[in-house]
Amino acid sequence: MPLVKPSCVHEIRARVNIVDVISRSVTLKKAGSRFKGLCPFHQEKSPSFHVNPDMGVYKCFGCGKSGDLITFIRETEGLNFIETVETLGQRFNVPIEYEAGAGPTREERSLRQELFELHDIAAQHYYEAFSANDETGNWMRNYWENERRFDLELAKEFKVGAADVNGSNLGAELMKRGFSESALRQCGLFFIYDDAEISLRSLRHRFRGRLMIPIRDHQGRVVAFTARQTALTPDNDPAKDAKYVNSPETPIFTKSHLLFNLDRARSEAKEGHPFVLVEGQLDALRSWSVGLKTAVAPQGTSITEGQLALLRRYHNQVECFFDGDGAGQKAALRLLPMALAAGIEVRFITGDGDGKLDPDLLMMEQGKEGYEDIRKTALSAMTFACQALLPEGRKANAEKKSAAMKPLFEIVIAAESEVAQSEFLKEAAAQLGLSISALASDFERYRRHGARRAPARPRNEEAESPPIPRGPTTISPEEHLLLICLHFEAYGKPLSLALPHEWIDTQHPAGALLNRILAEFEQDAWPGTAELNESGLLETPEEKALAATLLFDTPTMDDPAKVAEEGLQKLRLRALQPQLRQIELALSQSQTDSQFDVISLLKERSELQRQLRQPLRLAPVV
Ligand code: ZN
Q: Which residues contact 167 (CB under 8 A, 6 or more apart)?
């Protein structure tokens, strides 16, 4: 594992002002010799997050989080220690040196980390093109203000940008910055022939003559772009006719797992302030511009279970605010059972139901009040479902009513609790003018016979051939811990908190993968084993093979906690014992010239001994 020289870490702590680091993501106000702001780690209305620049530390008096500039970046940007030091070095121009010259080349660094950096630079680059006083910049700003009717302040806040007919020469900028070939190939911003060497000529820009809107993940990192067609879009754009073109999926961008504006909306959503689900990114920007800050949007595709699960992590109330036309209402109906299954309380804003509702226009003309007014008439889940499935309602004939039952029951059955199901049935009976007992018994029959059940997952234990026994001696502690993470996910988070990344040997695929997976657990971003292959977490063929092997059999472990603790203990001994031995040696040979050194060695020794004695206990997080 490459180690950053401790002198560089000291250098960063000495040279970089913690206020400069934190004020990139938190608005800080001076209060005496200190600074105050709203805590980024918990929701609050009055600032209890304090920064002391003299000591280089922050502390929140609300939730108790505290630390220095390194912990701040680690926690808010989800990076490991080395990535954090590298990021700070890059941002504040402190050169980073590595122990014994073993610094990672660009290629060896995490591809994901490189892609995040690349997108950050690309967003800035496009924004500068948008702001430039030249033909493209002037045209785009005019388009933004007069045709889209947004203001420039909003463009600045979201770094809305422009790509000119030549892609604003983003390729040259990125080549100059020395990004690796795989990052340039995989970032999705260029078309590159597989067999072409990377050069300025072979980088063909995907986005040309378009308005560029950065897409951020739930941590606020730019991971992709959506590009709006304009009059500047050239005729030879392969997607010339598409109004919007999104970045393709990349190791850091999975469309179905990301919601536009969630990074900002998540801290605004709370009781009485539900998430507002809108159809497109520009609708979300419109909402934000009128002060409706909880709006989120999918990426030009219909909403997925993964996106709803993501929302549910922050708040359980969602209002669906789609166009009143057929497409919008169909999308809303498709979303309904998924929302119920995810445990989301969902309401539907439909206006007069005359199909003319246009959220963008409404907010442009009437601002947030327009939304506040219309949401008073929002429909509950069941009322919306009944109206959508049977527009004639009570007046419909018996045949139509019975035809509507199956889709209705499909929605009701998605609700997990029986209490919720029977509430829904009562509501549906009232809406449709049916007797509740008749409806309930039809539903019961449907549940027993008619419901399409998801096919049971094949279980490996029942496979005919017994699992191939693996040699017990060859498996490393890292592999043991990977097995735990993959098969007993409840231990992932506690393990990520108990296991410092320095103890892991990342020279080997198992260690590299374990480190990356634990980082996901630590950030509560673990995609689950089903999504592992698509997640971009498996970076090399070796890692893919390893993950496949480890996932193949369910391991026989009576007590996963014990196995995890043993693995932790092994890694701790491996990491700390050599250090301890070195100190003993230095002390015994009296290699030290000053009393001060002896004292500091003794201190270090007792600290190591203390760490080695600490009990290792893991409790699963359910
Ligand atoms: Zn706090």
A: 205, 206, 207, 208
The pLDDT, as a whole number, for residue 465 is: 31
Question: What token pair was written down for 378?
Answer: 């929002």
Burial of 29 (0-12, 13-18, 19+ CB in 10 A): exposed
Tell me the one-letter amino acid at 509: P
The CA distance from 278 to 297, in Å, is 5
Look at residues 236, 4, 177 and name the one whose alpha carbon lies nearest to residue 101: 4
Closest CA to 119 of 22, 258, 284, 253: 253
Q: 295 with 274: CB under 8 angstroms?
A: no
Question: What are 211-222's pLDDT values in tens digits?
Answer: 999 999 877 899
Q: Which residues contact 619 (CB under 8 A, 6 or more apart)?
A: 494, 561
With 0-12 CB in 10 A as exposed, 13-18 as middle and 19+ as buried, what is 93? exposed
Q: How far apart are CA 277 and CA 466, in angstroms?
A: 49
Beta bridge partners of 205: 190
* CA 43–ligand 1 middle distance (angstroms): 7
Estimate to the nearest angstrom the gap between the alpha carbon of 396 and the chain centroid. 45
Q: 520: closest CA among 507, 501, 540?
A: 501
Q: Label residue 107 exposed, middle or buried (CB < 10 Å: 0-12, 13-18, 19+).
A: exposed
Q: Give the distance (Å) from ligand 1 centre to CA of residue 61.
A: 7
pTM for the full predicted model:
0.58
Tokens representing 500 are: 């410092």
Of 112, 221, 227, give the one whose Cα is nearest residue 168: 227
The phi-psi region of residue 93 (left if phi > 0; otherwise alpha if psi is between -120 and 50; otherwise beta) is: left
Phi then psi for residue 301, to 5 deg, are -130, 170
Question: Which stretches of the chain score pLDDT less than 50?
Answer: 1, 101-108, 452-473, 592
Quote the ligand 1 centre to 296 CA distance (angstroms).
Answer: 24
DSSP, collapsed to helix, strand or coil, labels residue 276 as strand
Q: Classify residue 367 by burial, with Cβ atoms within 10 Å: 0-12, 13-18, 19+.
A: middle
Pairing, β 190-191 against β 204-205: antiparallel
To 5 degrees, how large is the angle CA 121–CA 122–CA 128?
90
| CA atoms of 415 and 411, how far apart (whole Å) | 7
Query: DSSP code of 204?
Result: E
Pairing type for strands 57-60 and 66-68 reads antiparallel
State in Å: Cα 387 to ligand 1 middle. Answer: 44
CA distances from 559 to 163, 278, 474, 564, 567 (A): 56, 46, 21, 9, 13
Q: Which residue has the tokens 């606020």?
A: 220
Between the CA of 65 and the centroid of ligand 1 the distance, in Å, is 6
CA of 55 to the centre of ligand 1 (A): 19
Rounded Cα–Cα distance for residues 35 and 14 (Å): 19
Q: What digits encode the pLDDT tens for the residues 422-435?
A: 889 999 998 888 88
CB 406 within 8 A of CB 439: no
Residue 458: the pLDDT is 33
Taking CA 18 as the corner, what is the angle to CA 13 and CA 20, rounded to the nearest 5 degrees? 120
Tell me the CA–centroid distance for residue 67 and ligand 1, in Å: 12
